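Review form for a predicted model. The reviewer records the input and the model, then writes brief findings.
Reviewer: anonymous (R2)
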Amino acid sequence: MILFLLIFGKENGRKTTMFILVTMIILVPIGMMAKEIIERLRPIVPEADFLMLADSEYSFPSGHALMVSAGATITLILFRDSRKELAISVLLVVEAALVCFSRVYVGGHYPLDVLGGILLGVGISFVFIWKEKWLKMLYLRINNKFFKVKI
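Model under review:
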């Protein structure tokens, strides 16, 4: 989806993509540190016909929920200047909800792991959106260097 926004999203899509990428670069180590600090074990799932093998990594917060909620939040806030953009943003929110549900469904996380991932992802996204001026300056430099577009 990030590549789709970068290629087809025009100016607003490129800006949204940059916000998502910077946020995710920061969220990966935050999520990993939170897992190591909290050390919550994953649910014990008896060996059955599950869709995936049990993961040995800690459970809280859900990394999938963390990433998709951050991406959906940023897209919903920044990529909604037209009906088409808003429709894409709402579809991303639906996709994020399905991913979050799937983490519990496949037995990889407890519901609170997913909720923690959602809250952390949305919270960090709001921090980056709050610091939008700093990120806009970074975006302008990157945009001018790679896309040669003058604003």
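Findings: The two ends are 25 Å apart (CA to CA).
Further findings: The mean pLDDT is 82.
Recommendation: see findings above.
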